[in-house]
Amino acid sequence: MRERQEPLVEAVTPLQELAQRVPQLEGVPTGVPGLDELFFVTEWREGKTVRRVLGGIPRYAVLQVTGVSDTGKSLMVEQFAVERARRGEPCIFLTTEAPGPFVAGSLQLRAQAMGVPREAIDRAIILIDAATHTSLTHDLGTLLSTLAFAIRTYHAQAVVIGSLTGFYEAREMQAREIVRPLYLFLKKWHQTALAVSQKRSGHELLTAEAAGGFVVGHILDGSLVLAKQPVLSYQQAKLYRTPIGETVRLFRIDGCRMSGHDTATHLLEITPEGLVRIGPRLSDLARGAAVSTGEEEVE
User: Fold this and answer.
1) Cβ proximity of 139 and 177 under 8 Å
2) pLDDT mean over 26-42
3) What is the Cα–Cα distance from 233 to 33, expressed in whole angstroms?
4) Residue 230: how many CA atoms within 13 Å on its side-chain side?
5) Rounded Cα gap, residues 184 and 205, in angstroms
6) Is residue 58 within 8 Å of 146, Cβ to Cβ?
7) How far apart are the two ends of the chain, measured CA to CA in Å?
8) What's the 3-state SS for 120-138?
9) 53, 37, 32, 17: which is closest to 298 by C-alpha?
10) What is the DSSP letter of 142?
11) What's the count of helices (H) and strands (E) in the chain, helices before strands?
12) Contact of 16 with 2, CB cutoff 8 Å
C-alpha cells in the first residue's frame, strides 16, 4: 500500500489572488507587414462587441514558426528580432543551425532592408551560439542557465530560437521533454518568443505538425504556419494571379491561446529585399475584394 503523500499546498491558489498577477494583454509589433493586424481582442463597448486589433503578437506569447524549407521562417523571426532592436528592446537570438557570425550577417541584411541602423541591432540583439557550442543543444540545464544569464545581464524582453528542431532532431521521441521545460522557462521569465520548427516535406501543407510531431504546437501558445505551393493548373493561376510553373507561399495562424486571431489562409510574399510580408486572404482574392483591417464590429 502506497504511503500517503503530503499535499503541495503552494500549488493551490484562489483565482482572486492569481487575478492580481494577470499581465495586461497588449501587442508586440513583429516587423512583418500584414501580420500584426491578425491578432485581436473582443471588447464590449456601449452594449456591442467590438474587435480591437492588438497590433502585434500577444506579449509573453511563445509561438512556433513552422514550415518546410524556403517558406520564409528564418526571415520572419529575423524581422522580429530587428524590430525589437528598432524599438530599443533587447532580444536574445538563440541559434542552433548556423554559427553566430553567419546569423549576425543575416541580421545585418535584414536590418538594412528594414531601414534599421546597424548600431541599433549591435546594441540590442544578443546572440547565443548553440550551433558552435553544442553542449547547449544536449544539456537542457546548461541551456536554461545560459538563457537566464543572458536575460538578466541584458534585460531582454524577447527571445528568438532558430531553430527549436535543433534540440531534438536526432531524438524526436524526447521532444516533449525538451519543449515543455523551455516553454515554462520562457513564461517564468516573461519573454515574448518566436521559435522556428522545421516541418517534414511529407507533412500536410498547412498543419501545425512539425518535426517532433504535434507536441510542439500543443505545448506552445500557438503556431504561425508557412507553406509553399507550386502553381500547376489554370484554376490555381487564376486564384493566385501567378503564372503556371511559379511557386506561391501561404500563411495561416494555427491557434493562439492568448488572444483572438485571424483564421484565414493568406498569401505570403518574400520581397526582392529579402523581407516577408503577409498578403491578402485567399478568400478575398477569390472574390476580388480588398482586405479590411482595423476595428470592425462583430455581428
Assistant:
1) no
2) 95
3) 29
4) 2
5) 29
6) no
7) 58
8) HHHHHEEEEECCCCCHHHH
9) 53
10) H
11) 10, 15
12) no
